[in-house]
Amino acid sequence: MDGVTTGPGPVVPPQPALTVVPPPEAVPAIQNLSDPRFFINRELSWLSFNERVLEEGLDPQVPALERLKFLAITSSNLDEFFMIRVAGLKQQLSGHVEESGADAMSPGEQLSAISTRCHEMVARSYRALLGDVLPNLDRAGVRLLSTAHLTPEADHFVADYFAREVFPVLTPIALDPGHPFPHLRNKSLNLAVRFQPSAPGARLRYGVVPVPSVLPRLVEVPDSGRRTYVLLEDVIARYVAQLFPGMPIEGCWAFRVTRNWDLTIDEEEAEDLLVTIEREVRRRDRGSAVRLEIAAQAEQHLSDYLVRALKLGASDVYRIDGPLNIPDLLPLLGRIEQKELHDEPFTPVIPPAIGDGERDLFRLIRERDVLLHHPYESFDPVVSFIEAAADDPSVLAIKMTLYRTGKDSPVVRALQRAAENGKQVTALVELKARTARSR
């Protein structure tokens, strides 16, 4: 019985049921979806993407030559980023355009954040290159040496190579206050030379030697069965005194200039877009400088001199402890055959639905959809499909978009044949490839 206990003790009266009333739920405040905290800056987002590429180059589980490839891709991506994206921000800054995007970062704030991220990215790339990738290649019998560590046989070869192949194509330039600083091409590699002052306390004098792009950057030298290379700029630096007779040289350092490479084209006003693009491509090589890469060992006076001459800021200088422009090392991939230095070759598969290519592709796609997943599945069925369309009398027209093609593209040949066969052929071809600049 309620309220009654068995055994001795007081009688407990019935207790009323306890009802707990929860407090009213707090109504969430309406969030402002335009709050800049909800947006990621597009330039910093792109850098995050490139950092993911860099991670492959830093991964010790990846074979050494594949890591070199990823480091080169990271470097090449940064070139494009500076030539287009950073150049655009600098133009906004110089034009006093303070308009910001949804993230509310001004051009100056973006450039500051970009500089911090890019300096760190470059430092990580070269730590991996010098501390791991090149040593692994050295252990595999492939060496990149400075000219100071060559054997007598290799040293003789380098001297002869300089006199025979290099010296005739060099154009040394002496710099002086009476002449403007020479225009150095975008992404060109150069050597800055400092001459001995004419008197104590006199103005420092410099010269520039553009490293010729018509010669290979990697110079293979004889080395008792090993594959040994020296850099072309090191060969030039070793004999640079021959270019400036009578002028004692006290230092020589490599540097590289990146310029604004953006195109300014009004498609509505251009009578011939292709001709306009060709004209702009020739003109843009004279764009303003946006970045200076210089050997880490270069003296500060030289760096300051180049910054003034190129109209850059201190944050635009990247001191590189290693060979400038990593992509120039990529020819090593084709010269080294050790399997352990490469990824296993990948061969795209032919989908079972298509078979060996003898099936009638038109009949197949009438029966069911066919989905191809590139690059894991071969692109050959696509080429075969276009070739079949070019010769099929039932096909009246071919309309397609071509993003990029090779010099001897089977797709282009098939389209030409289709046109010769009297079919209507329309191909949309990309002439201008770049990321649109934010405003």
Brief sketch in words of this structure:
This protein is of the alpha/beta class and 439 residues long. The model is unreliable at 1-7 and 435-439 (pLDDT under 50). α1 runs parallel beside α3 (107-139), α2 runs antiparallel to α3 (107-139) and α10 (380-391) runs parallel beside α11.
Characterise the protein shown here:
The strands form 3 sheets. Strands 2-4-3-7-8-9 form a 6-stranded mixed beta sheet, sandwiched between helices. Strands 1-6-5 form a 3-stranded mixed beta sheet. The chain folds into 2 domains: 42-341, 2-Layer Sandwich (polyphosphate kinase like), CATH 3.30.1840; 361-429, Endonuclease Chain A (Endonuclease, Chain A). It has 11 helices and 11 strands. The chain is globular, with a radius of gyration of 32 Å. Helix 2 runs antiparallel to helix 3. It has 439 residues and is an alpha/beta fold. 37% of the residues lie in helices and 14% in strands. Strand 5 (218-221) and strand 6 (227-231) form a beta hairpin.
Q: What integer is the average pLDDT?
A: 85
Q: Which class best fits the helix and strand makeup?
A: alpha/beta
Model regions low in confidence, pLDDT < 50 over at least 5 residues: 1-7, 435-439
Number of strands: 11
CATH level-two architecture of the largest domain? 2-Layer Sandwich
Multimer state: single chain
CATH fold annotation of the largest domain = polyphosphate kinase like
Proportion of beta-strand residues? 5-15%
Q: Please, what is the CATH homologous superfamily of the largest domain?
A: Polyphosphate kinase middle domain
How are strands sequenced across the largest beta sheet? 2-4-3-7-8-9
Give the C-alpha Rg. Answer: 32 Å
Tally of DSSP helical segments: 11
Order of helices and strands: HHHEHEEEEEHEHEHEHHHEHE
Roughly how many Å apart are the termini? 82 Å
Approximate shape: globular
